[in-house]
Amino acid sequence: MARDVSDTTPIGARSELVEWIASGEKPRESWRLGTEHEKVPFYKADLSPVPYDGSRGIRALLEGMQERTGWAPIMEDGRPIGLADEEGGGAISLEPGGQFELSGAPLANLHETARETAQHLADVKAVGEKLGLGFLTLGMSPLWTRAETPVMPKARYRIMTNYMPKVGSLGLDMMYRTSTVQVNMDYASEADMVKKLRVSLALQPIATAIFANSPFTDGKPNGYLSMRSNIWLDTDRNRTGMMAFAFEEGFGYERYVDWALDVPMYFVKRDSAYHDVAGASFHDLLAGKLPQMPGERATHSDWANHVSTLFPEVRLKRYLEMRGADVGNLEHIVALSAFWTGILYDETALDGAWELVKAWNAQQREQLRADVPKLALNASIAGRSVQDVARDTLALSRAGLARRACRDNAGQDETRHLAYAEEIVASGRTQAERLLERYHGAWGGSVKPAFSECVF
Q1: What span, in angstroms and rounded, lies between the C-alpha atoms of 15 and 320?
Q2: What pLDDT is attached to residue 7?
Q3: HSE (CB half, 13 Å, CA atoms) of 134?
């Protein structure tokens, strides 16, 4: 997230929180997709991590990107912590360990997403080259320990860093050492949101399996194909997971709001100051009874910022965020967006996906979520392998993209962007498994070759 929201309009009732989410509804012709991806920078000379400060640090990278793109700086305590494309809507932000994130603009189709991502990567590489930096295409930094990983100067991250060890054993690894790719999708109505949320929650482990790409930690194999996904299982159970309640009868905006209200807060932002209220209740802030800030009442920005600190497998804000995949190369990034666009933006494909998953019960979905980080395509659900389910899901997505009939300048439709994922599923071998083969073979038991082979 590039920056926290600033809207001091007071909230008078719970109904306004529901209305805030409902205000995201858009007619089909206005649906867009926004692709976000993170990447870990490193110094090419010695494969070391990149700190914020210094003549070749993250700040210098941000300043170089500002000069190259003309995007406006996002500042905190006099330091740039991101950039905003105030015309197009995209942004660059910093994750806690220096992961460099593009939050893409809301775009009409996958061809635009591919162009946007390619342009961003060209810009990052051009600026990074001058600073001696490279950027990894892995879902987790493969070499450095958590203690060796730099810390970015963002107040909200300091608050989260203090709180994470109280609620899980791997939250700091999530913050400082993982990288993801996500796509944000629109909905037309409450019913449309519910259907899309249920389908995408059920299928999120399938996406995790297809795009598994984080098999190394601390310089060696970690025993998982998506260690990034496994880390989320022990980060903070209050705000993560598969949201079984979303499949209960009567689920909608109000039920999601009630869940969000019950999730402990991290912070309250007033002007430019972040106030640490980690563990406190939004109910208390809504009632003006927050012990840490007596008399303060909730505002629209408090709610937007709080919702951004919830981390389920699919997050509902005023759009839906698909959160299950490790980052990878350019084709990997766009394929993730293609996978979900074909399913969620075509009614026939969405209906077909619901038929595929509707018989799965909560226990089966949870078991799948637990198995996929280690087994990926070799996991199973309801007597079927994930590889088989992924094959069916990709077929639905391909047909949905074909029906969208969005063509590029060469006359090709969006189905071409699925090729990366389709090859993985057809082969039954994830990128993580291919890298493990390299590690045990040509790499000679070292992860260092990843810094030349697994880069943008």
Answers
A1: 20
A2: 82
A3: 18
**The 3-state secondary structure of the chain, one letter per residue:** CCCCCCCCCECCCHHHHHHHHHCCCCCHHHCCEEEEEEEEEEECCCCCECCCCCCCCHHHHHHHHHHHHCCEEEEECCEEEEEECCCCCCEEEECCCCCEEEECCCECCHHHHHHHHHHHHHHHHHHHHHHCEEEECCCECCCCCCCCCCCCCCHHHHHHHHHHHHCCCCHHHHHHHECEEEEEECCCCHHHHHHHHHHHHHHHHHHHHHCCCECEECCEECCCCEHHHHHHCCCCCCCEECCHHHHCCCCCHHHHHHHHHHCCCCEEEECCEEEECCCCCHHHHHCCCCCCCCCCCCEHHHHHHHHCCCEECEEECCCEEEEEEECCCHHHHHHHHHHHHHHHCCHHHHHHHHHHHCCCCHHHHHHHHHHHHHHHHHCEECCEEHHHHHHHHHHHHHHHHHHHCCCCCCCCCHHHHHHHHHHHHHHCCCHHHHHHHHHHCCCCCCCCCHHHHCEC
Q: In Å, how far are 232, 243, 323, 336 from 326, measured between CA atoms?
A: 12, 20, 9, 10
Contact 245, 252 (CB under 8 A): no
pLDDT of residue 4: 67
In Å, how far are 407, 433, 447 from 443, measured between CA atoms?
A: 41, 14, 7
**Residue 257 bridge partners (DSSP):** none
- Cα gap 29→16, rounded to integer Å: 26
**Residues of the chain predicted below pLDDT 70:** 1-6
Sign of the torsion angle spanned by Cα atoms 278, 279, 285, 289: negative
Query: C-alpha angle 157/6/124, rounded to 5°?
Result: 55
Tell the residue number behind the tokens 């959160």, with chain if given. Answer: 323
Kindly report, residue by residue over 80-138, the tens digit of the pLDDT.
999 999 999 999 999 999 999 999 999 999 999 999 999 999 999 999 999 999 999 99
Place of tokens 């992860």: 447
Residue 245: both structure tokens together: 């309640």
pLDDT at 5: 64
Distance between CA atoms of 48 and 446, rounded to whole angstroms? Answer: 15
